[in-house]
Amino acid sequence: YALFERASYYHANQDYHNAIKDYNQLQKLMPNNSVVYFRKALIFYKQNKYKEALKELSIAEDLRPVLLKVHLYKGYIYADMGMHNKALEAYNKLLLIGKDVGNEDERIKNTPQQIVLSRYDIEPSDLKYNYNIDLEFDYATCYYAIGKVYNIMGDTTLALDNFNKALSMTKHPDYYYNIGLLLETKKGDYYGAYEMYSTIINNYPSYYKAYERRAELLYNRKKYEEAIVDWSKLIEKGIASAEVYSRRAHTYELLNKIE
With contact defined as beta carbons under 8 Å apart, do 126 and 117 qualify? Predict the structure, then answer.
């Protein structure tokens, strides 16, 4: 247990060299502990060592397929590698397993501890790590990842469908933003996009790229003064690009000509 804690400490502090050393030792001591393989895979993923990460994830999956994040990260890796169908396969497997996990949750809520442990085949001190990875999972993350893959593949309808599923489960600025971007650039639904960007700005005021997208929409609708307000907010925060300064200056010139 102390070794696991130390490995987790190294991992959390991005001391990946020592974390890997401890995970390797843990794999010798606990060869059937899927979480160790999963955590080791996370480090390889961070280092863009996809082949090594997939190897560890596959072992974790064989040991305990119910660990949902194993499938999620497999999907991430395949998506990064451009293997979109493989990514979708991993995400859909997660959702399929997740349904079974969800159905079982109610049954085990009041089940004696030893039965729960039997289900997971883990030591009591290890339960919290497996439980968090396994059951406390936000399925919105998976639907959002599926939407991103479909977006890359050029299927706007399925991309929007999955982004909206994610948003219905969890309110997150990334979900609003990507829906807005697709509505704006693929569907020509400027009003819908405006609503998405405005929702972000009203609820997540530090999500600054929404200001830039909304300003462009306003400019294209010839609402120049409102566009200037959004660009000015970025400039005031000191995060505006040269393009934002240029767009605002150009818009001021247009207003002067109009007057």
Answer: no
What is the phi/psi pair of residue 201, to 5°? Answer: -60, -40
The rounded distance, in Å, linking the Cα atoms of 38 and 92 is: 19
d(CA 17, CA 12): 12
Name the DSSP letter for residue 83. -
Spatial CB neighbours of 161, under 8 Å, sequence gap ≥ 6? 147
Determine the Cα–Cα distance for residues 256 and 75; give it in Å rounded to an integer. Answer: 52
Q: The tokens of 99 are what?
A: 């349904």
Q: Which are the contacts of 221, defined by CB distance < 8 A and separation ≥ 6?
A: 190
For the whole model, what pTM was predicted? 0.83
**Tens of pLDDT along 98-145?**
876 655 444 334 333 332 322 333 333 343 444 444 445 789 999 999
Identify the H or E element spanning 207: none
For 154-189, write each residue's pLDDT tens digit.
Answer: 999 999 999 999 999 999 999 999 999 999 999 999
Helix residue ranges, H only, 204-241? 209-220, 224-236
Beta carbons of 116 and 104 less than 8 angstroms apart = no
The CA–CA distances, whole Å, from 190 to 144, 179, 180, 221 equal: 22, 12, 8, 9
Helix 68-80 and helix 34-46, axial crossing angle in degrees, nearest 10: 20
